[in-house]
Write a structure and sequence with these properties.
Low-confidence stretches: 232-248, 250-257
Strand content: 5-15%
Order of helices and strands: HHHHHEEEHEEHHHHHH
Distance between the termini: 35 Å
Largest sheet: 3 strands, antiparallel
Structural class: mainly alpha
CATH architecture of the largest domain: Orthogonal Bundle
Number of helices: 12
Mean pLDDT: 82
Helix content: 40-55%
Oligomer: single chain
CATH topology of the largest domain: hpI Integrase, Chain A
Radius of gyration: 22 Å
CATH class of the largest domain: Mainly Alpha
Length: 257
């Protein structure tokens, strides 16, 4: 058992290894309940470092899109507009897109939380999809007529270097999307639903990017006891117009496979 845990720790991050640990612990508890084990061994979770979220400014994102080859630029832009994970972008099929209703959806078996994700498509996202029409009968994003399976390529890394962007991965596009939403005022509960996160805890890491919920209280203290008042701060991102164009995706029922 310890060998399995150590192997998973070497193969994955500490956070992912802890997920495996939780699953093993649940199995052992059930085995103990059924009388198959005399006791449940204890396992210490692996320490998880508090990592700093890396997200792009509007200017950095624009530079990156300019430097990327067109097929990767389209995928990166779509990621910035929808927040979809890399696997959901590379695996997106036309059967999952409704251009007329301006919606797409991710099936439960494709989602990390194993729940369907409705995706609202704004004007820019629709434009990206229209550029892909006619390139492939099944998948949305292609390169030279073939589905794209990998984004962390030499072209991606060279584009980052030319754009002057360091310490950034493709998954950072999802962090960027979430950060822009929070700065534009999107409530965390709504963001959780849009991003398909299993719990609000995963979204709370973006909360510090918005001062709306604390600005009104920060004004309560002033010099010499003077109580000052001010309107709540609102951080407005350059993408606010994109978010305002979002169209609801209610009523979409993902097809079963």
């Amino acid at each position: 058992m310890c060998g399995i845990l150590e192997r998973k720790r070497k193969e994955t991050s500490a956070s992912t290894a802890n997920h495996y640990l939780a699953l093993i612990r649940a199995i052992l508890r059930r085995a103990h309940k059924w009388g198959w084990l005399d006791s449940v061994p204890s396992f210490e979770p692996y320490p998880v470092k508090s990592e700093r979220l890396r997200w792009l400014t509007q200017e950095e994102a624009a530079r990156l899109l300019q430097e990327l080859p067109q097929h990767l630029a389209d995928m990166a832009e779509f990621s910035l507009l929808t927040g979809l994970r890399q696997s959901n972008v590379t695996g997106l099929e036309w059967a999952q897109v409704d251009m007329q209703r301006r919606c797409a959806w991710i099936h439960p078996d494709q989602a990390k939380a194993r729940k369907p994700i409705p995706v609202s498509l704004n004007d820019q996202a629709i434009q990206v999809l229209r550029r892909q029409l006619g390139k492939h009968h099944r998948v949305v994003f292609t390169y030279k007529g073939q589905p794209v399976t990998q984004t962390n390529t030499k072209a991606w890394r060279k584009a980052l270097k030319r754009a002057g962007i360091e310490d950034f991965t493709w998954h950072g596009l999802r962090h960027t999307w979430a950060s822009w939403h929070v700065q534009a005022g999107t409530p965390l509960l709504v963001l959780q639903q849009m991003g398909g996160w299993a719990s609000l805890d995963m979204v709370q890491r973006y909360a510090h990017l918005s001062a709306d919920h604390v600005a009104q209280y920060a004004a309560n203290v002033g010099v010499n006891g003077t109580k000052k008042t001010q309107a709540p701060l609102r951080l407005v991102s350059g993408t606010s117009q994109h978010i305002e164009n979002m169209v609801g995706c209610e009523g979409i029922e993902p097809t079963t496979r």
